[in-house]
Amino acid sequence: MSEKKKVGLDIARSSTLVQEYQVASWERNELPTTPELTAIDEKIAKDPENAELHKERGLLLAGLGYYREAAECYSRAIAINPFNWEYYRHRAHRFVSCSYFADGAADFTIASRLNPNDWNVWYHLGLSYFLLGMYDKADWAYTRCAALNKTADDICAVTDWHYMTLKRLGKDEEAAKLLDEITEDMPVSDEVANSYYQRLRVYKGLRAPETLFTNAGDGAGLDVITQGFGVANYYRMNGQEEKGVEMLKKVVYTAEHSKWYAAFGCLAARVDLKNIGQA
After folding, report:
1. In angstroms, how far is CA 4 from the centroid of its own chain?
2. Which of 36, 62, 65, 226 lies in disulfide reach of 195, CB 3.0 to 4.6 Å?
């Protein structure tokens, strides 16, 4: 047996391997002490094989921004009950928050097999593929998602990402056709969905991209994060590459200096900057 086979490592490649990039840190944030976390920990101590309790703990941690720890809670729930689609859906979301896009896509795929009729699963599966640069698969997932639309909020959210996906595939006619469903005075109720709605109005030429940034103070930063990625794409799709890249950088900088550092727009902006060598 050769030495190469003995060690189980391709010696020719070992000089390029950085161990720190391969092994996740054991370090964790110190968890806060809240009445809700204390209560759920006490319940788990009494009933450790209750998968729903681990899911509930994960939701609490995710709400506080502890995404890695939340994912571990969902993993514990899956170990107890591996046939519950919700556990995969929640873990996948947190994987995406941590920039583990392939892991997220895998879990969303499992969730879609266990429950093929959940809008959120298909929406976030499309996002995972978009972040991976797998635009054909993102197109497929968003098409499946759109078939499950029930509200104006649903329509605006999926149409925004689907539109950007089709534009990146060079399917301009299909992208333009998506906008036919976007009308004036749509009954959008969710704040995030309204952000998508306003971007779609920009794509349709109903408002200027600069008008999306209307808040002052703390709201201005949130505007940049929620609207900036779509505006950056608008600039780049319309031949204003330098202006678009500047906006991508602004999105990342603003998000990394706020509590919204794991927002989808920021994650996507980081990916785009890396892909063009500007990260």
Report:
1. 40
2. 226
| pLDDT given at position 215 | 62
SS3 (DSSP) at 12: helix
Q: Among 39-43, 69-73, 209-213, 214-218, whose mean pLDDT is lowest? A: 214-218
Residue with tokens 């005075």: 185
Token reading at 78: 């899956």
DSSP 278: -
pTM of the model: 0.91
Spatial distance between the Cα atoms of 98 and 105, rounded to a whole number of angstroms: 13
Chain centroid to CA 54: 22
What Cα–Cα distance (Å) separates residue 167 from each residue in 101, 234, 238, 274? Answer: 21, 10, 11, 19
Residue 193 has pLDDT above 80, yes or no: yes
What's the chain's Rg over C-alpha atoms?
Answer: 21
